[in-house]
């Protein structure tokens, strides 16, 4: 048997294992048969941007029209690790990085090779009779060996060169390449694949579409029709932009030089390109909603729009992610589900990327073996159920010059982060939403810091590699 055959056999065995874990021993055969022959549950669409921060929603008219104005915009949506691959592993499993084992984008502590794909939202839903599709980016370092993970009925995973032009794809186990022509533009291709999946799925089958464009990740290449748009936007200059005084921050922050004219121009240009690149994503959302409506599915479809992490545009002298600051850990977080959401509203509850998997599982009527997130259904119903007041953010530093490994506790008001170096940052997001003043050791914050530190010890267990209190 060749490698591809072995991989497919392993995938089938993993699906079988996943089914057993979901339905339990003994009654498993009967429950599985019922799920496969008489599936029920709403259709599920999860759209995940790549490096898309909250502020970008204002530039997406279709997202605003079809999702925000008909659903819930969660204004306190967060990721539990502000890096692409760890965040995506958490989305697929409902687990923190300390449980997935995926801390970084690359081996040995992250990337595609570190992810255990035998039990994911795809395997759970597939076992429950759903038609499942991944269309877009999967995990960092995926490809080009044409492997298709278990649980996916349709697999169209794109990778290499940012996924805009001159990129590769694996389509149901077959390698493909896309060039520089207008029709090769990545987001357009993904939109067509998503619409085809919706239209080709039998009306009697519930579907799960995991749609993951590469936009607006760098290089944030816009479609040609959008390259001259938004050029007149004012420059982004919030209070923390190129922060003047970093003396109260950890050493790795104090080492950050102020932004020079070239860096300012590059960040400004990148922000505009991100907005431009998202116009294709916005049109894709419109096409997906239209396909759901025309196939009679929209009225019973849960649609989620989010990102794998945020992005800093010069705040605190930073350009990128991997930090504890709100611009990196906060993400757009929009849910539309007409059967439960009677009117559009905003919601301030603390919601996380590890909440998606248990939410989809509950709607599909399956019980995953283990999740650390919570189903969002009580919040969608507006039931007033008690909710989390704090959560963990964890990160593993990749090398000496990167952000050090850390654990952080985040509440609705405070953020306390402790680095592997022993340094700490504490911010009061009510008094100081721009996170300019580190409150560690300051008058009036001793007891707050002590209590948060105690809670963090309980949350940060197990600790990331290389970290200890």
Task: Characterize the structure shown.
The protein is α/β, with parallel strands linked by helices. The protein has one domain: Alkaline Phosphatase, subunit A, CATH 3.40.720. The protein is 30% helix and 18% strand. The chain has 13 helices and 18 strands. It has helices at 3-23, 28-37, 61-66, 84-93, 97-100, 121-127, 186-200, 251-254, 261-294, 326-329, 356-364, 377-381, 446-459; strands at 43-49, 72-74, 77-78, 131-136, 154-159, 167-171, 174-178, 207-212, 301-307, 312-313, 319-320, 333-336, 345-347, 351-352, 390-395, 406-411, 414-419, 424-428. It has a ten-stranded mixed beta sheet, sandwiched between helices. Strand 5 and strand 6 (167-171) form a beta hairpin. Helix 1 crosses helix 6 (121-127) and helix 7 (186-200) packs parallel to helix 9. The longest helix has 34 residues, at 261-294. The chain is globular, with a radius of gyration of 22 Å.
Topology:
Blueprint lengths: L2 H21 L4 H10 L5 E7 L11 H6 L5 E3 L2 E2 L5 H10 L3 H4 L20 H7 L3 E6 L17 E6 L7 E5 L2 E5 L7 H15 L6 E6 L38 H4 L6 H34 L6 E7 L4 E2 L5 E2 L5 H4 L3 E4 L8 E3 L3 E2 L3 H9 L12 H5 L8 E6 L10 E6 L2 E6 L4 E5 L17 H14 L10
Parallel strand pairs: 1-8, 1-9, 2-13, 3-14, 4-5, 4-8
Antiparallel strand pairs: 2-12, 5-6, 6-7, 9-12, 10-11, 15-16, 16-17, 17-18
């Amino acid at each position: 048997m060749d490698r591809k055959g072995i991989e497919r056999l392993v995938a089938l065995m993993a699906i079988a294992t996943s089914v057993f874990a979901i339905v339990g021993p003994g009654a498993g055969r009967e429950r599985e048969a019922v799920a496969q022959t008489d599936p029920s549950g709403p259709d599920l669409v999860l759209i995940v941007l790549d490096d898309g921060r909250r502020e970008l929603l204002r530039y997406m008219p279709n997202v605003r029209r079809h999702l925000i104005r008909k659903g819930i915009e969660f204004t306190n949506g967060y990721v539990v690790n502000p890096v692409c691959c760890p965040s995506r592993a958490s989305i697929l499993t409902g687990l923190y990085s300390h449980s997935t084992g995926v801390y970084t984008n690359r081996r040995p502590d992250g990337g595609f090779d570190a992810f255990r794909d035998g039990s994911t939202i795809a395997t759970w839903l597939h076992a429950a009779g759903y038609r499942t599709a991944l269309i877009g980016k999967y995990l960092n370092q995926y490809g080009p060996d044409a492997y298709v993970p278990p649980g996916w009925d349709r697999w169209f995973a794109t990778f290499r060169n940012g996924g805009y032009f001159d990129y590769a794809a694996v389509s149901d186990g077959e390698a493909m390449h896309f060039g520089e022509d207008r029709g090769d533009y990545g987001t357009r291709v993904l939109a067509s694949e998503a619409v085809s999946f919706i239209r080709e799925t039998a009306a009697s089958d519930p579907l799960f579409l995991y749609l993951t464009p590469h936009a607006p990740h760098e290089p944030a290449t816009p479609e040609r029709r959008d390259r001259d748009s938004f050029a007149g936007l004012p420059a982004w200059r919030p209070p923390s932009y190129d922060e003047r005084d970093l003396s109260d921050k950890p050493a790795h922050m104090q080492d950050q030089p102020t932004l020079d004219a070239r860096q300012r121009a590059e960040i400004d240009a990148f922000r505009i390109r991100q907005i431009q690149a998202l116009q294709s994503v916005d049109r894709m959302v419109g096409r997906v909603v239209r396909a759901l409506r025309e196939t009679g599915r929209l009225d019973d479809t849960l649609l989620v729009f989010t990102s794998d992490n945020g992005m800093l545009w010069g705040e605190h002298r930073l350009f990128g992610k991997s930090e504890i600051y709100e611009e990196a850990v906060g993400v757009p977080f929009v849910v539309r589900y007409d059967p439960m959401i009677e009117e559009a509203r905003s919601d301030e509850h603390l919601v996380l990327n590890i909440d998606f998997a248990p939410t989809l599982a509950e709607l599909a009527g399956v019980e995953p073996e283990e999740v650390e997130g919570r189903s969002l259904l009580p919040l969608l119903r507006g039931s007033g159920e008690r909710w989390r007041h704090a959560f963990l953010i964890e990160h593993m530093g990749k090398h000496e010059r990167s952000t050090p490994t850390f654990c952080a506790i985040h509440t609705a008001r405070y953020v306390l982060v402790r680095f592997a170096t022993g340094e700490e940052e504490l911010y009061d997001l009510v008094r100081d939403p721009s996170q300019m003043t580190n409150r560690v050791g300051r008058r009036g914050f001793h007891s707050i810091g002590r209590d948060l530190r105690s809670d963090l010890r309980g949350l940060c267990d197990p600790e990331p590699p290389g970290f200890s209190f």
